[in-house]
Design a protein that fits this description.
11 strands; binds zinc ion; Metallo-beta-lactamase, Chain A
Amino acid sequence: MRLFVQIILGIFVLVLLGLAIFLVPPHLQTQGIEPDLPNEQALRDLMTAQDGPIAVHYLLTASQDVRGRQLAHTTFLVEWANGNLFAIDVGMDEAGAADFAELMAGISGGGEAQFFGTLGEQLGSELERVKGIGFTHLHIDHTQGTTSFCDARGTGTDLLQTNDQRDAHNFNTVEGAEIVEKSCLSRGTLDGREVLTNDAFPGLGLIALGGHTPGSTLFAVGLKGHLWLFSGDTTNTKADLVNNKGKGFLYSGIFVPENTGRTEDLRLWLTGLDTHDDIDVVVSHDLEALLATGMPSFGQ
Ligand SMILES: [Zn+2]
């Protein structure tokens, strides 16, 4: 009996050790990524960019009931007067969405899932207008749809991406990074320090965040009179953002190695910005909070 207990204990210690060896490097990596954040005025400057964007729309590619709330897989489309569109995140194709729904069912009680069509299917002939794409981060639920996008679109779309997002990966981002790397997207240049811009997309800014993943990026869109901030998965719900609530040890410690000090800094920073009437912070997966902002869906 004593030997049996010793064997079980030994296995337990080995599993813990294996987990530590596996998890320590990605945690150390993400702890080291805390780029300077811009001040409010630097973000507001996007609102006065010449020939800036005229609208932002959302498009729902898939959603899943997770313990009573809708976990949405959204794409955001920024529109300019010349007809150009920039897509923030691309969601998944139908098979990818089904796989992800199954994963969510296993780890966090995800229920019934719905698929509404890829970005290409939903945009149809308007797809040609998409001249740029950016990702809030490289997790598969934000990037897997790149392949079907490219199949439908061909070349002609620029990728705007921070250096951290291109270079710093962990076990959760390598798959998405590879999809993006091998895709039809060609990397565009970025100028600036805290707020990175590209002349082809005036009024659009990228801000390196880290926190959720090493390459997590905030997309800021300055319309005349309104600033939209797309925070990706820094939090999973708007309520968690506003209430400064983290995701818990299992999520941030094991499943998705996060820099939790950084995600807390970001929650506080973003909540402060969100208190202004002319600024909205959008949380990628929170459909209810998105609808409450009044953002129109594409084609609406
Ligand atoms: Zn996500």
